[in-house]
Specification:
This protein is mostly helical. It contains twelve helices and no strands. The structure holds zinc ion.
Length: 205
């Protein structure tokens, strides 16, 4: 998703759970995942190129860092790891066909009803994510060349599949709603596994 959308979703999902200084650091770490150095060769961070298992492993790994950081003095690295984790969790809905599969399964339900953790879709062999085809997928990001790139790119490309912005149509609302809910869900997972002392340190309230 576009960086300002990541930020908006973070505030929506987490502002009531963290101190303002914690929230700003978590958001900065989330935004940093879209820096160029975290784009190239890091499919797992954005669930690109069918890196579904690697993306899920990355999320678990960052959750592990949150725990490890909270067991040691200081809290900064816990916030940074949680910012990284949430970025990937959010990109899952804009870079895979999870939303298309969910809408197919629930044709009458609205974006507000979206379930971000449907176990059946997680396990579906149909679940895949957009492939990056260089250099055409790079040309897609240059607005005057977008049409040209789309005409040449296959349907399983990032350019055709992404739900990164409202310009992508109706499905974007579902992806955004799912990403906000998933962000809250990731916080709830930590709420369950952290001791009260660790949680107090983490939320910084
Ligand atoms: Zn990303």
């Amino acid at each position: 998703m576009l960086v300002p959308i990541h930020e908006e979703m973070m505030r929506e999902a987490l502002a009531s759970h963290f101190s303002p200084r914690a929230l700003e650091i978590i958001i900065a770490a989330n935004r940093k995942q879209d820096a160029l150095s975290n784009q190239i060769g890091h499919d797992e961070i954005h669930f690109d190129n069918n890196a579904i298992d690697a993306g899920n492993r990355y999320i678990k790994e960052q959750r592990g860092y949150v725990l490890a950081a909270l067991l040691s003095p200081g809290v900064l690295s816990a916030w940074i790891a949680f910012g990284r984790l949430t970025h990937s969790a959010q990109d899952f809905y804009s870079h895979t066909n999870y939303i298309a599969l969910w809408m197919e399964k629930n044709p009458r339900l609205s974006a507000l009803d979206v379930n971000p953790v449907d176990a059946e879709i997680f396990a579906s062999p149909k679940l895949h994510s957009g492939k990056i085809y260089f250099p055409l997928d790079a040309l897609y990001f240059i607005p005057p060349l977008r049409k040209f790139a789309l005409a040449l790119l296959p349907r399983d490309s990032h350019a055709w599949m992404n739900l990164d912005s409202p310009k992508q149509g109706e499905r974007f609302e579902y992806a955004r709603a799912a990403a906000v809910k998933r962000t809250q869900h990731e916080f709830e997972i930590l709420q369950k596994i952290l001791t009260p002392e660790m949680l107090a340190k983490f939320v910084d309230l």
